[in-house]
Specification:
Elements (H helix, E strand, L loop, with lengths): L8 E4 L3 H10 L5 E4 L5 E7 L4 E6 L10 E4 L6 H11 L6 E4 L6 H9 L4 E6 L2 E4 L5 E5 L2 E6 L5 H13 L3 E4 L3 H22 L10 H20 L6 H14 L6 H7 L10 H11 L4 H13 L2
Parallel strand pairs: 1-2, 1-5, 3-9, 5-6, 6-7, 10-11
Antiparallel strand pairs: 3-4, 7-10, 8-9
Helix pairs in contact: 5-6, 5-7, 5-8, 5-10, 6-7, 9-10
Enzyme class: oxidoreductase
InterPro entries: 6-PGluconate_DH-like_C_sf, 6PGD_dom2, ApbA, Ketopantoate_reductase, KPA_reductase, KPR_N, NAD(P)-bd_dom_sf
GO molecular function, one term: NADP binding
Length: 299
């Protein structure tokens, strides 16, 4: 893509989820990647057996995309966005954040509130195989909504594009509720997959998971209710089990990070629950155990 052309969508920090969006959006849109790698030849494998092959090149500089999808890890979001925007001749028309957990969205809004900002919470599952293929390990719901007033004008257009690409997408007026609800699911799956070194579905029925899930969900419910996000332990547990079943073959992003020797997002998931509990005077021993145990794996 030449500098005179503007991609409809640009993926900043394209990991498994970012590449999934890139491949599926490309059926109807121009897509460019921004990251640290060179050209990518990609094979997307669906659980049903279908395979799609695509090739992408990384764009080091030039025009910003129409819409930037930021799929970096939470701890790297502001740095990656800042670096990309400094290289572009102008900012993108809109930015969509895909980060897990809570906290990084506020940091981006403090830095880039002059740009239309939106966020996504998705339960789509994707991972890379040893030979580099991208596996769409499970379909889910994608919730999209604005983080600032100017972002609201872009929600319907971007949501329609996501739907047309095959993502079940729902628009949210308060995306922070969806982000918190996704945090609750991640808090009940990701750390366990690291400690048991298994895909999502293998958690179900494992004694380590089954013994700790009910007290974990109780902690999540109490912190949620005190934070203004009504949820019961029973509902949280049911959602965790449903997602683990629907994405049974998926290797969680946190386990992918540990296997690759990268930092994890445990601090903005279970760690965020622990910090919220401290601020509210609520004990969260299971969340603390999970956060400490995952952190110990990456030291």
């Amino acid at each position: 893509m030449s500098a005179s052309n503007i991609a409809d969508y640009g993926i900043i920090g394209p990991g498994s989820i970012g590449l999934l969006w890139a491949v599926k959006l490309r059926a109807a849109h121009s897509v460019a990647l921004w990251g640290r790698s060179g050209p990518v030849g990609l094979s997307l494998e669906f659980m049903q057996g279908e395979t799609i092959s695509e090739s992408f090149t990384f764009e080091p500089r030039g025009q910003a995309p129409g819409t930037a999808l930021v799929t970096t890890k939470a701890y790297d979001t502001v740095r990656a966005l800042d670096g990309a925007i400094k290289r572009w001749r102008q900012p993108p028309r809109a930015i969509v954040l895909f980060q897990n957990g809570v906290g990084s969205q506020d940091e981006v809004q403090q830095r880039f509130d002059h740009i239309p900002l939106l966020a996504v919470s998705t339960t789509e599952g994707a991972n890379r195989t040893a030979d580099g293929a991208l596996v769409h390990a499970g379909s889910g719901l994608t919730r999209l909504g604005p983080l600032n007033a100017s972002g609201a004008a872009w929600a319907e257009k971007i949501g329609a594009d996501f739907c047309a690409a095959g993502f079940d997408t729902r628009l949210e007026t308060d995306i922070r509720i969806a982000l918190w609800e996704k945090l609750l699911i991640n808090a009940g799956i990701n750390a366990f997959t690291v400690l048991l070194d298994c895909p999502n579905g293998a958690l179900l029925g494992h004694s380590f998971f089954e013994d700790r899930l009910p007290p974990l969900c109780y902690e999540l419910a109490v912190v949620s209710q005190a934070s203004g996000y009504p949820a019961t332990a029973e509902i949280i547990e049911a959602r965790i089990r449903t997602v683990a079943e629907k994405t049974a073959g998926n290797i969680s992003s946190m386990l992918q990070d540990v296997r690759s020797g990268r930092p994890t997002e445990i601090d903005v998931i279970n760690g965020a629950v622990v910090r919220a509990g401290i601020a509210l005077g609520i004990a969260t021993p299971v969340n603390r155990m999970l956060a400490d145990a995952v952190a110990a794996r990456t030291r």
